[in-house]
Design a protein that fits this description.
The protein is an alpha/beta fold and 416 residues long. It is built from 13 helices and 13 strands. It has 3 domains: 50-159, no CATH class; 182-287 and 306-350, Rossmann fold (3-Layer(aba) Sandwich), CATH 3.40.50.300; 362-415. The radius of gyration is 32 Å and the shape is elongated.
């Protein structure tokens, strides 16, 4: 008996129960299908008449969008909000809570979806977030204007002054950072001028680098005892050339995360590697780390310990002059003990300019004293320097000047 005869037999009057059940199944299936048709058509219509843009928390742009949201008037009318303390330092900011929110912008209706979830990443839990904006239209130029507006909002917040960024899954601007004035950093005669001249020449040589096919970045090494003003000099240089500083602590990275962080550094920036001699992994590993080796007494098993942090020498070199090295940046390294650095790190192309910052000279101390006390005479400055010869570095000598300033201000405060 073929399939047609079977269906005919079921639907015949001889089997009313079976025919009735099959008929109900057919009607129910058609009902479910027809009920989904309007929803499918509506989804197709929405996809054809709207456009979306999504920003997730893996990049710095996610923070920029939050900053833009804080400036929008519609945010005051949202009834479901979250507290955010990362956008404005210690101040509290209210941002949209997870879910869907409506607002009107530039003559268009917008829907913003704020999505948040907790997902397991390696051995730790990480909360992931994303913002999706949907609006009417099909022309991407409107989305481009939206992105430009968000970027302009971020630029207004940081201004033209130099900013400091640290890395925690993405680069975050350090609130309250104040750049050093170039005049406040006192070096030996000619040292500061020579360094500024080299940086200025590099920044003006982009066409020549492009013509020669040479990677457009330059490396600087500032080395010497602690307290000689290495970090202060970097801050002053960044302010002078209106560049931002992206500070890297190599002990917080491995090769993969360092590469990802450096790839996100924008042009016209300074990448600062402080205390490069303190790298935990000065050389590339030739054997697996302890956590990856087999656990004693349990053949075939591995420890559940997380991967060790620390950048290998090969990973650092790839960042400095590998294929993925960023363009139009200054790589600046500071070191207290330059003798411990690998010669491969110091070759030209990775380190192009070296400046030794040693113990403070008498001339440096006198100049710094006159900066603190412009009305003081040369004799007073020399006398103070003579009585404070134990201060070997500029940091120590500056501490003595601050104490002197406080002692002189104390009688005035008592009289007031």
């Amino acid at each position: 008996m073929n399939m047609g005869e079977i269906l005919k037999s079921i639907l015949s009057g001889h089997n009313q129960f079976a025919s009735g059940g099959l008929l109900l199944m057919i009607i129910g299936g058609l009902g479910v299908y027809l009920r989904a048709v309007p929803e499918t058509l509506w989804g197709w219509l929405v996809s054809q008449t709207t456009m979306m843009i999504t920003v997730n928390d893996e990049g710095a742009a996610f923070v920029w969008v939050k900053e833009w949201l804080l400036e929008q008037e519609f945010l005051k009318r949202i009834r479901r909000v979250d507290v955010d303390t990362k956008l404005r330092g210690e101040n509290v900011a209210l941002i949209p809570a997870p879910g869907r929110h409506w607002f009107w912008r530039a003559g268009r209706p917008f829907i913003v979806y704020f999505y948040r979830s907790d997902e397991k990443k390696q051995v730790s839990h990480r909360r992931s977030e994303s913002l999706t904006f949907r609006t009417i239209g099909r022309n991407q130029r409107f989305l481009k204007r939206f992105v430009d507006e968000v970027a302009a909002c971020h630029e207004r917040k940081i201004g033209v002054q130099s900013s400091l960024y640290t890395y925690e899954e993405y680069w975050t601007r350090v609130e309250g950072y104040v750049p050093r004035l170039l005049e406040s950093v006192v070096l030996k005669p000619g040292e500061k001028e020579k360094l500024l001249q080299d940086i200025g020449k590099f920044k003006a040589s982009w066409p020549r680098y492009r013509q020669l096919g040479v990677p457009y970045h330059r490396g600087y090494l500032l080395y010497g005892p602690p307290g000689t003003g290495k970090t202060s000099l970097v801050s002053a240089i960044a302010a002078k050339f209106e560049m931002s500083i992206y500070a890297v602590n190599l002990t917080d990275f491995n090769d993969r995360t360092l590469m990802r962080a450096i790839n996100d550094v924008p042009p016209n920036s300074i990448v600062l590697f402080e205390d490069i001699d303190c790298m935990k992994s000065g050389k590339a590993r030739t054997t697996p780390p302890d956590w990856a080796q087999k656990t004693p007494g349990a053949p075939g098993e591995k420890s559940d310990a997380p991967p060790q942090l620390g950048v290998t020498l090969s990973g650092l070199l790839n960042v400095l002059d590998g294929f993925n090295a960023p363009e139009n940046v200054l790589f600046v390294m500071t070191s207290n003990i330059v003798e411990t650095l690998d010669p491969a790190l110091l070759r030209p192309g990775r380190i192009d300019f070296k400046l030794y910052m040693g113990q403070a000279s008498e001339g440096q101390k006198i100049e710094l004293y006159r900066r603190f006390f412009p009305l003081a005479s040369e004799v007073e400055a020399e006398l103070f320097v003579e009585t404070h010869r134990s201060a070997e570095t500029m940091a120590e000598f500056q501490g003595g000047l601050l104490r002197l300033e406080q002692d002189e201000a104390l009688p005035e405060l008592v009289e007031a």
